[in-house]
Amino acid sequence: MPPLRLGVNIDHVATIRNARGGDFPDPVRAALMAVEAGADGITAHLREDRRHIRDEDIASLMAALTVPLNLEMAATDEMLEIALRHKPHAACIVPEKREERTTEGGLDAARQFDALAPMVRALGYAGVRVSLFIEPDVAQIDAAIRLGAPVVEFHTGRYAHLDGQPRADELRRISDAAALAARNGIEPHAGHGLTFENVGPIAAIPQIRELNIGHFLVGEAIFTGLADAIRTMRAHMDAAR
Ligand SMILES: CC(=O)[C@@H](O)[C@H](O)COP(=O)(O)O
Ligand SMILES: NCC(=O)COP(=O)(O)O
Q1: Which CATH number fits domain 5-240: 3.40.50.10800, 3.30.930.10, 3.20.20.70, 3.40.50.720?
Q2: pLDDT 10s digits, 3-49
Q3: Rounded to the nearest whole angstrom, what is the distance from the C-alpha of residue 83 to the centroid of ligand 1?
Q4: Are 3 and 240 in contact (CB under 8 A)?
Q5: Where does 1-deoxy-D-xylulose 5-phosphate bind (predicted)?
Q6: How close is the Cα of 98 to the center of ligand 1, in Å?
Q7: Domain regions of the chain by residue span
Q8: With contact defined as beta carbons under 8 Å apart, do 116 and 96 qualify?
Q9: Which residues are near ligand 1 (CB < 6 Å)?
Q10: Whole-model pTM?
Q11: What is the reported pLDDT for 184?
Q12: Active-site position among 86, 155, 189, 192
């Protein structure tokens, strides 16, 4: 089976920092520690409301990292300008609602096709690998194909919050979607809400090449330390593969 990369999302280190202002804990320090512990890349979501990652974090991450940075961003002119200025390895276009607690669903790439097309093109021309954060849905994959996106990331939030047969059904949807994307030359990734308990079946989907995991790892770090949490996640992923 092809290798499975782990992208560690450090957003919620910034959430803790921002709770008190100042610059502690530093998400860049967490990112470097994550890499040391085995992360293959770092993910950071610069939300429009800057509730966790801020503009200066992106600049600092770009300067400090020796592994790929995956910048998660809404499909806005402001975010496009920031992505084109920094040129991270990858930009994952995500849906954003200012009042949401977290990213509640996938990007509606099918409906937003006309707005996304110039953005995907501009990022691609700049050498940024574009990813679309979508539901595991045929219409969305079809839109990603027509947009020429090289990567899709399937939103695993629904899977993560289900149990029993409904979870098995959602897993099947993700697995079928990954196979369809791969058959069409798109690299499938997955993420959102993944934990030690639920990561195995997602990691076992052979076409999936990268998982992006954040909130659980930062929470688990309180109990075992960030490096240990990442190493254990890596072990769960490898065992499933
Ligand atoms: C798109 C995505 O799934 C991540 O960016 C994650 O959502 C980060 O955490 P918040 O949603 O809490 O900002
Ligand atoms: N794209 C998903 C991501 O980066 C991390 O999501 P979560 O593990 O913080 O839920």
Answers
A1: 3.20.20.70
A2: 999 999 999 999 999 999 999 999 999 999 999 999 999 999 999 99
A3: 17
A4: no
A5: 11-12, 47, 52, 102
A6: 12
A7: 5-240
A8: no
A9: 9, 11, 45, 47, 72, 94, 102-103, 133, 191-192, 214-215
A10: 0.97
A11: 98
A12: 192
